[in-house]
Amino acid sequence: MPGREKGPLTEPMYYVLMSFLHREMCGTEITEFVEKKTAGRVKLGPGTLYTLLAKFQDEGLIAEISVDGRRRTYQITEKGREAFREELDRLRACVDNGLEALS
User: Could you please report the per-residue DSSP string of 25-62?
Assistant: First the structure.
């Protein structure tokens, strides 16, 4: 069963999904994870982040697991893990193709 049928993930999408691989997170934790993981290369504004979270929820890639006031916590689903794996495989193939082209 494919994780995501709607094409490749953008870089922010990829890192947001990555943020959930080891634990559930809320929006501010996701933003901090992505900025730290990418050494500031990828910055998520609130509009981008919450648009992605809503999209991922609609696609069944993540699930909201708790709400405490304005703080919403999410976790990745098995479908989300599969979408991440598929994107990782695609990116590896891109890198391999680039390395071959340089040889």
Answer: EEHHHHHHHHHHHTTTSS---HHHHHHHHHHHHHTTSE
* CA pair distance 82, 1, nearest whole angstrom: 8
Give dist(CA 38, CA 41) in Å, integer. Answer: 5
pLDDT at position 5: 63
CB atoms within 10 A of CB 74: 24
Q: Which residues contact 42 (CB under 8 A, 6 or more apart)?
A: 11, 12, 15, 34, 35
Mean pLDDT of 49-67: 97
What is the dihedral angle through the alpha carbons of 5, 67, 12, 54, rounded to the nearest 10 degrees?
40
Question: Residue 3 above 70 pLDDT?
Answer: no
How far lies 79's CA from each of 3, 64, 82, in Å?
5, 14, 5
